[in-house]
Amino acid sequence: MPNEGPVESRIAARAWLVALAVAWLGLVTPAMAQEIPPLVWPEDGIIGGIRFEGTAATEDELRALIASRAAENLDAETISADIRALYATGRFEDIEVETLREGLSVILVFHFVERPRLRELLLPEALEPDRVSLMDKSKLQVGSFVAKSSTVTLRAAVVESLGDEGLSLADVELVPLEVSAGQVDLQVVAAQLEPVSLREVLFVGNQAFDDDTLLALMESQPASVWGRLFGGGRLKPRRLQSDVQRLEAYYAEHGFVEARVRLAYVAAQADARGVIAQVRVEEGVVTTVSALGLFGGVVDGELELSRDALALQTGSVFSLSAFQTTIEQLRRRYLALGYALVEVRPTRLRAAEGSLVLNLEVVPGPLVHVRDLLISGNSATAEDVIRREITQDEGALFDGEALRESMANLEATGLFETPSYEVKPVSKGLTDVLVTVKEKDPFVRNLSLAYGTTTGFGGRAQMGHRNLFGLGKRLWIEGWLSQLRQSAELTYEDRRLLGTRMGWRVRALYDNRIYPDFSSSELGGDLRWGVELHRWLLFDIDLGWTQERLSHDFEVVPPALAALFADGRRVSVGASLRFERGDPDEPFHHSHTLSAAIADSAFGSELEWTRLDFDNRFSLALPAELRLGGHVRGTKLFDFNATGEIPLSERLFAGGPADVRGFKAWSLGPHESLDGTNRIAVGGVEELLFSLSLDWSVSESVDLFTFCDAGNVFDANQARFAFDLFSDGDDVLRTAAGFGVRAKILSLEAHLGFPLSPRPGEDGWTFALSAAQPF
Question: Fewer Cβ close by (within 10 Å): the C or N end of the chain?
């Protein structure tokens, strides 16, 4: 067991090596590069001439930089300013000034030591991916002058980058290689590149939370099989420092306002390249809010926010997130009313140990009107495309909620990453608002692969452009190829028809699905027109035309079932209403869709039916990095306008990775016999599906999840909707449960599903794996 006190090790020593430079570079920056001391001349006189020695720069270039002139009085302050101006070019490592007496005048001689120019930065293979960031940090570019300070910064950045890869004991040396007069290659030599393992994370002083709870919050994981699986096992100092901050935030979130977490390294005795990270915790006591005071900002009572609506309440345990939310609630209230410069100033007073008096002073500032909306960051996108998403008007009172909604609108276009706005005051009561966007790559190229024990191998490719002509219009083609499905689609979409809240989409498609006992293909397309009634409420109308064809290998189809195998032309009209609430950064998201469609001979359709659908989804953030998700879907097909039974191509099928995991694709629901013995899945006219999942974020890149799915499809003349976890009948919701993992790398997802009551012939488990990658 290691001692509690930190033991000096090579890890700690390396931190000091960052400050050391190799001999040729030195560490001492010339005094002239700092503040130029006052010059003291042994004599005064008139400048008879100025000479420059030791530089390739032309005299004209240098004379343009200095203020001293021939025939003028020799002046120490002017010469000091000249030296500073010459150093500012970045070209010179050292400058000395000499005076030569010639009669009654003085000749000024500037002696220079020029810095070499960088021809190339030579990096080890392990550092090539970091080339751009290393050069940016050190302010070194090909062709630039190599300053000693830049090389010191470069070395520190290299050490830091290697540490991020777990190579914390690497020896780094910078070697200049002169290639010609005034030019050098700078070679980074890194030795001892073996990784340093994090053998153990040892917690000391924690009482409120056990070791496992705290370790689960950290990205750094010990060198175990589990730790390596999720990116752990190597000592990465910067990651550990981030973990320390994360632990302090966790304590603050649970009321430990004065909790402090500190880190020390202890060398493992068995292996010099193994390290124990000792995490020392000083918890303090749980703090409650004994009083919450609100001051200032109230004008005739109009702006007062109900205390009951605040996240932080008197008598509650102090929570860092509740504290931040309370401040944001107050700010948003005032921003929405035109107080663009509002400030909320918190003051914390300790009344007694474990008790906190919290005062929040609101300083609203003046009411502000918006003079101009300024747009930046759009190199390819037309400015009108951005402005049409902004609901704040020029000349109107500043509206923080409108701008917040505008940023969400811009992000929803799919054209930009994290748009933001900045208030730029012009005068009292008047401001400009600068909206900044970062454009995404307009070209979309995605490839996804999948495998399932019941679906086999499959792949999907998508290519397109999301910002045609910089106008936000989209055109893409995608295809799917697997053992159960082959499809292709060509789609054009304009979300803002003529700059309005209306949009339209046209699509051509081919889709062939291979069911357990037959196949169904369709060729055609659809046209959709929609209007955004509100950012959360969308209304669509669809017109569809397809040619349906059924194929099977049965020699004889009983007359009673012949209508099931009908095919032909389908022409349909549909409408849908979708409500979606919850921004990506909010803990609760939910969406609800209600749709209806009809295919009828009145439109020229040979296949007839009427269809109703509802779809509800939610996602709720829970403590301890958990998230609860749910999905309920239902469909009903009516045949009151049909001339016969609804054919197989139009019926509903369930089962497989897309809905009821744990079962074979499209295998659930009613089965009919064609020969008196073998029964085939014929789908149903009613569908009900439930899904509940619990996700746990193990790290920033990996989630584990568990799920329970229940669902089935039913015929109109059978008992249905019974919920029995362990029944295998056609008249109940078939149920399965399982678990899986998601990783950001390749958008990887894998899961195992287990039917709770499998029938004879059904698999006792299923496995599915998918991955996607832009290219």
Answer: N
Distance CA 570, CA 548 (A): 7
pLDDT at 768: 93
Q: Are 605 and 572 in contact (CB under 8 A)?
A: yes
Asked if pLDDT for residue 616 goes beyond 80, the answer is yes
- Do residues 129 and 76 share a domain? no
Q: Would you say the C-alpha torsion 302, 536, 617, 719 has a positive or negative sign?
A: positive
pLDDT single digits (tens) 625-665: 889 999 999 999 998 877 777 888 889 999 988 889 999 88
pTM tops 0.85, yes or no: no
C-alpha distances in angstroms, 629 versus 486, 534, 619, 749?
Answer: 30, 25, 4, 16
Quote the pLDDT of residue 739: 96
Terminal Cα-to-Cα distance of the chain (whole angstroms): 50
Enclosing domain of residue 230: 197-282
List the CATH number of the domain containing 20. 3.10.20.310
Is-contact 216 247, C-beta < 8 A? no
Q: Per DSSP, what are the bridge partners of residue 577?
A: 539, 594
Please check the confidence at residue 16 and state whether its pLDDT lies above 60. Answer: no
Segments of 600-727 assigned E as strands? 609-622, 626-638, 671-673, 679-681, 686-697, 702-714
Residue with the bigger pLDDT between 55 and 528: it is 528
**Exposure string (b/e) for 125-141, b if CB count within 10 Å is 16 or more?**
eebeebeeebbebbebe
Q: Could you tell me if 728 and 734 are in contact, meaning their C-beta atoms sit under 8 angstroms apart?
A: yes
Report the alpha-carbon angle 745-750-752, nearest 5: 165
Phi, psi angle pair for 356, to nearest 5°: -135, 130
* 119-153: pLDDT as tens digits: 888 887 778 888 888 888 888 888 888 888 888 88
Band the pLDDT of 235: cuts 50, 70, 90.
confident
Q: Would you call 49 helix, strand, or coil by DSSP?
A: strand
Question: Measuring CA to CA, which residue among 502, 411, 585 is closest to residue 403?
Answer: 411
Q: Which phi-psi region, left, alpha or beta, contains residue 529 (left: φ > 0; alpha: ψ -120 to 50)?
A: beta
Phi–psi pair at 506, nearest 5 degrees: -125, 140
As given in the structure block, the two tokens for residue 107 are 């000749």
Q: Are residues 663 and 681 in the same domain?
A: yes
Domain count across the chain: 6
